Amino acid sequence: MDRGQFLSHSVSGFGGIALAHLLNSEKLLGTEKVRESAPGKTPVRPLIDPGNPNAARDSHFEPRATQVLQIFCSGAISQIDTFDYKPELIRLHGKPMPGGDKLITFQGEQGNLTKSPWEFKARGQSGKMVSELVPHLGSLADEMCFIHSLTGKTNTHGPGENFMCTGFTLDGFPSAGSWVTYALGSETENLPAYVAISDIRGTPQSSVNCWGPGFLPAAFQGTEFNASKPVRNIARPRGISDITDKATRAFLERQNKRHLNEYPGDNELAARIASYELAAKMQMTIPEVSDISSEPAHVLRDYGADESGSKIKDLRTAHAKNCILARRLLEKGVRFVQLFNGAYQTGGEGVSNWDGHKKIKEQYSIHGPVLDQPTAALLRDLKARGLLENTLVIFNSEFGRMPTFQKGASGRDHNPSGFTSWMAGAGVKAPFSYGATDDFSYKAVENVATVYDFYATVLHILGLDHERLSFYHNGIERRLTDVHGHVIKEVLS
Amino acid sequence: MKRFILTAIHFLFVVSSASGSVKFEAQILPILEKKCFKCHGQEKQKSDLRLDSVAGINKGGSSGEPLFVRGNSAQSLIIHLINSDDLEERMPPEGETELTVGERDLIKEWIDTGAQMPLAPNVIEISTDHWSFQPVQRPNIPEVKGDWGNNEIDSFILEKILSKKLSPSSVSEPRKLIRRIYQVMHGLPPSEDMIAKHLKQIANDDWVSVVDEVLASPRYGERIARHWLDIVRFAETNGFETNRERLTAYHFRDYVIRSFNEDKPYDQFIIEQLAGDASGVDVGTGFLVAGPHDIVKSPDINLTLMQRNDEMADMINTTGTAFLGLTIGCARCHNHKFDPILQKDYYSMQAVFSGVRYGERMMPKNNDEAAKKSLMELEKKAQSMSKELDSLKLISSQIKAKGNGHNVKRESVSARGNTEIFDEIKTKHVRFTVRRTNNGGQPCIDELRVFNTKGQNVALAKKGATAESSGNLKGYEIHKLEHINDGKDGNPRSWISDTSGTGWVKITFAKESNINKIEWARDREGNFSDRLAIDYIIEHSLDGQSWHKVVGSEDREPYGGAVAANDAFLTFLPDNDAERGRNLMRNLQRIRNEISSYRNGSKAWVAKFEKPGKTHRLYRGDPMAKREVVAPDTLEILGSLKMSEDEDEQQRRHRLAQSIANEKNPLTARVMVNRLWQFVFGVGIVDTPSDLGSNGTDPTHPQLLDWMASEFMQKDWSIKHMLKILLCSDTFRQSSRPRTDAIKVDAGSRYLWRFPPRRLEAEAIRDSILAVAGTLDLNMGGPGFYLLDVDRENVVHYHPKEKTGPEEWRRMIYMFKIRQEQDLIFGAFDCPDGNQVIPERSRSTTPIQALNLFNSHFIVQQSGKMSDKLLQEAGDSVEKQVRTAYQLYYGRPALVDEINDATAFVRDHSLADFCRAMFNSNEFLFTF
């Protein structure tokens, strides 16, 4: 390994002189301690240019994918009503779950086994059974690699979304996107390296934790915006003309450069000067990339972005526009794009997210069509444009739902014991299904996988060893996979 | 890597007289020797397990789990491991060392028949040779030649610099030095007056006076408190998905600021935070519950137990990192991998905190004479301010009535309180009729106040007023008619009508009164906003027969559910009156809060205590896998406190606190002086300031650290004393200019051959902008201001405010600190969100920061204010404006080419544009 990579930058990040510090051949003061990030393994420290912290960096080994699209269904989408087909559940519909006596889950007691209100049909060449709730996505089953045996650690939304996004149930840990941009930087410098496209209805339950940097430097936080909500502070302030704005920037640069003469070679000062140049570029490119009005009519139609007038149509159009935005960002080389579907703000308990406790049929009858066509169109479009060759797509939710209806209700309670995620695109085997739950989709029983395994695999596909991508924080070399995780080799292409 | 060793490492097996059917020496030991010693013996200790000594066998491996339970093989870890079907788990691993069936049976039998072993100490002894656990000894001051150096610190620093063939830098230019000490110790730039004064002091070789003055300012406490609040993960919401507000958590912040300003001895400060309730300083225990906690409850017992264990983990972890510089939290699931901390120790600490609960409670009331006097003064002040404000409101309504104002409606109603101002009326009855509520529910009013022209509330029952209504909601103790005028606020003392959406309530005064103001609210405590009257009329009557309208809701903005702007009346007033009104409102609110806490004591978010149950060690930290009961204690390595399993709750914390705030504790003083060093120089002598354990880094100047720790304790743990030494040193006063020769050797400036420059933190940037623009409100203490709008439902949502005004122009430490969510501008400047302890902030530079600081409404607004200020101070001459600006922004005169460049720019554009650039400039945002 490159000796330079061994030398960590100080814990305070890459401030100022740190670059010189980094490249200094002498190991200074014995303070650059080499700690273990896993038994027998040492961290691979990314070499970060303070002037451009998101400049592209090499992966640990040859990557299978270089970009990530994470589709996140907030509120816990039911695997039972989408991708996890269970004939036994249909057969025993209305009967108590065998072995499920007096089962207490998140909201309380369980009623009887209840089959999905949506029928399952065989899809594609593979004949994968996918429900009628998501027929468009179903039609792409041959592109997908399902993991049916995922397990979580909590049955509460907040900690669950934290866990699925950061690898920890507690608040305050870096999101997967932050880890990836910390390791790899980005291929584009005119756009943020990491973008979180929020649902127009609001944020997920864990809110900004899902794209937060935790204890990583702020440079690696996700920038949140969507097709209808621009990046904050991106626009030139009202009342200031373009000419004045440019002149002000130029004056600022002259003032900073005069001052830099007094501190020659100071990287932190130079980095701030550079950051204003990057900001000016972003000020141009972010509105450009977010403006989907230039998309041809047939694209809008394919995505379902051309209809309005009913609740479903309006929401679908909004999600579709976000899907188009996601594609445009990936096209420009953004490293990590998160696309959220579902929000808590405008109605928890399934009203505006996937948390179908009480009236799952009624609520999912809205959420399904909103998610389905646009997301499927996005996948298809990525493939048609060749973007799937280097983009890994992952589809997640904080956990799954119960095969029973809650006692006295027409919906399903939380279930972290066995749920489904899928992957598609670069680096994964498709069509493929890995792992399985029991006869009812209650518990993972075959090839049981953890969220740690899931992310170990994601990082592996990106050419990163999840045991060596770490950051020292309060006594520990912290990792996305904590002290766990095994790459699920079976799903690799 | 592993530095701690078992003290009992010698082969201890001697012939035993104990009897059991299986003989350890004859039957078990040979198995261990043959099959286990290779990995768990003298050479290697995989998983920290040694089987070649009794102590080692008793201690077990890194899981913290004992190897066996005497007499119960079924519950013994070793039996589980040697029989496991999981090949990754099975011991010994597959291969030639595998145990035979006979051997396995023998071990099982040995355990079941009592696991006899040779005599060995019961106590597991651990020791360490790690530096931070060794007693603090005051080292000799190094003797160094030359005239550089002002105090002891300089001797240590110079010795190191010279040994690296470096040399110190010359003393910094006085103006830079003044700016530096203010930025470092106040987080604000010095004012013009202070610069002038200090320049004289420096010319008289009296730097000490500068240091003394800086440390005496209340701005000092605010600055150091900001650092401390990072270390103790303070924030004012619960975190997790509900993230509800803790409206009284600010008392702890005020306590921390006060403690630093008073230079409270650090040992006392520690004890108060862990067990302040033992000495009447309950507010200190806000420390224990300053972290996040999850209030989502479920009937699922696993979840409930895990939540509780997470809460205590947060307390243990913060106590460990903040005071001891140890990551005790790492021992929750297994023995600490690097430091001499057993899993048992973690649960001993958990037993210490197991009676601590989250919540609000009343603080003891201060009843002494001084307090009474202050209360009287405050009340007088509040009354006169309130009168002044009313007269402004009257002027406003007159302007409006004349149609001079724009056609602006009054603010919409607010659940928290509404004021009706009108011309004086002589009357005896007032009737408040609700026609519609916001949610259609029966209307609720917590208190109706009617004021006479002397500012007295004549509606009070105790003043002889009586109340009547259209009907009262039945069956609720907390909702009664008599609550409408009992002088008490809040939902638990409120009136609710018995009809949906409508109802009236009438107050009859003891005698005819001249009234000119009415106040009413749904819930002044802010917990409820339903049942709010949004369509209403207020009438009065002299005789109780004929009624006349006083005011109504028709001229209010329609109710939108959002927090109403109660300062809408200001829009009708001329500018100077509006400004006066705004200040009055702000200060009045603050004074009213103070009055309330004097009168009622104050409610505060601090720890609540209950009788603790038993604490068990948990196998792998799993709350469902309880093991033996553990008594409260500190870490074994620091010596036992010898408390019983049923020790009194307060005693547990108090005893632990005393053992931490103790000169015999090798860590406490070292940890704190290292932090002080970091506050001053940017990086600590140990650059992992909350981890002085083996996984932390070694000190660059171990002797210096020890000298400071010793000095700190000798001088009664005075923080100001230590800071004064640091600030008076030549080390601090060096120039910050880079030198090529030195950079080559020590680019990080860790040897302090210069003062290392650094960017200001988020809070210091915002405070400095406001200070320079002359808009900073220096009022201290009390509830924080919000940089986010709050949307209160089951789960609270926060939306960053696009625009801010004087209400939000206080120092940022007083910002209501919301977990997770960050404000629009400064969140991007590595501002921690209070979810984790952050002993040292990262310092990144990003284009998003640039966008925020260049384009935000706040910057444009403050640039405008700054431009006004410059015009006022410098008049029409552009050159003079520019010269003044450089003084204010950078604390130095402008250079010739700066004047030329800037004047040309201002002429082509505007002064405000120039100010915008200057707020973004490096020289403004860094400490040099």
SS-derived structural category of chain B: alpha+beta
Provide the CATH topology of one domain in chain A. Answer: Alkaline Phosphatase, subunit A
Number of helices of chain B: 29
Shape of chain A: globular
Mean pLDDT over the residues of chain B:
90
Largest sheet of chain A: 9 strands, mixed
Unreliable spans of chain A are: 1-31
Question: What is the rounded distance between the termini of chain B?
Answer: 38 Å
Mean pLDDT rating of chain A: 90
Residue share in helix of chain B = 25-40%
CATH-wise, what's the superfamily of one domain in chain A?
Alkaline Phosphatase, subunit A
Percent in helix of chain A: 25-40%
Classify the beta-strand content of chain A into a percent band: 15-25%
Overall, the morphology of chain B is globular
Cα-based radius of gyration of chain B, to the nearest Å:
34 Å
CATH architecture descriptor name of one domain in chain A: 3-Layer(aba) Sandwich
Q: Count the helices of chain A. How many?
A: 12
What does this structure look like?
The complex is a heterodimer of chains A (493) and B (928). Chain A is 29% helix and 17% strand. In chain A, the strands form 6 sheets. In chain A, strands 1, 6, 7, 8, 9, 10, 14, 15 and 18 form a 9-stranded mixed beta sheet that branches. Chain A has a 3-stranded antiparallel beta sheet with strand order 2-3-12, with no helix packed on it. Chain A has a two-stranded antiparallel ribbon with strand order 4-5. Chain A is built from 12 helices and 20 strands. Chain A is globular, with a radius of gyration of 24 Å. Chain A has a domain of 344 residues: Alkaline Phosphatase, subunit A, CATH 3.40.720.10. By secondary structure, chain B is an alpha+beta fold. In chain B, helix 7 packs parallel to helix 9, helix 10 crosses helix 11 and helix 18 crosses helix 20. In chain B, strands 5, 7, 8, 10, 11 and 12 form a 6-stranded antiparallel beta sheet that branches. In chain B, strands 1-2 form a two-stranded antiparallel sheet.
